[in-house]
Amino acid sequence: MKKLALAGLMAVLTLGVLLVSKSPVSEANPAPAPDNALLINAAGATFPYPIYSKWFDEYHKMHPNVQINYQSIGSGGGIQQLHAGTVDFGASDMPLKDELLQKLNLNIVQFPTVLGAVMPTYNIPGVTAELKFTPEALAGIYLGKITKWNDPAITGPNPGVHFPANDIVVVHRSDGSGTTFVWTDYLSKISPEWKSRVGSNTSVNWPVGLGGKGNEGVAGIVKQQPNSIGYVELIYALQNHLPYGTVKNSSGNFIKANLQTVTAAAAAAAEEMQKDVRVSITDPPGRNAYPICSFTYLLIPKKIPDPQKGKAIKGFLEWMMTNGQGMVESLNYARLPKAVVAIEQRSLSQVQ
Fold first, then answer.
1. What residues in the chain have per-residue pLDDT under 50?
2. For the domain 2-115+297-350, what is the CATH code?
């Protein structure tokens, strides 16, 4: 399965080359800059784009000569552009394991930046309630085994809600996506069948469903298609006023995604991250932990050829871990635990 998953990601990354090679970051999203400006190019995950955009803007105000140009093209595209050498650093919701790093010949340090969540959003005519989803229901829907909205696996946890006997329209991402990695990582943990048949990756061979590009593509299909269900990131759902359900966690509680429940999901990871920051926090222990959460990462080369860029990037990282964390909750992200910040500050010395 590992070989298949790696092959799947490599296929996505190859597609990323075809898509992004026609419009390099510096051309696709040019930013006017003073003659003495230091322009740093980056690309990757869409999930953290709102906070990254704010961070890069605020850092530029404090350091007018440093301009960070970030293209939100998805985790797969960010990894590929970093591999191709067309950006100074990348961003991914999926931490890169050693096998993939060796395959792509990447010598990087991975810095968690914020915490976020992915949740089910739906459009069921006549149903306005905040629905409760069990792990079994979500896995069954995405495996194509639960096909009707009035299936007992859905109606059981939602007494009093009148569900139609209509077919469920399943919606997923069509692009290589860190959001998909988080969603499928969760499904792989709670469903042995999902793990063996589909697995977790930024792009998978979906058993059923329609594909939409980006959060906006998934949300667009769900809005337009009655009786549909999809998955989107918390920040996107809140900004676009999308309905989303609670999910039953490992303690048996139905939990809604918010700052407190996302932070609770990371509580048990700090000790594990002392050994390796590349952790999965889906389906975590904890009475109040939302079960579909993840860190998102900046992928920073250990050797940055331009010493000025290296100094600027390290300066930004130090600021991001400290003062920058004070901005994240206003955008509905959860800040890094203090223990994780301490780990990252020690890791800064690896970037030269």
1. 1-31
2. 3.40.190.10
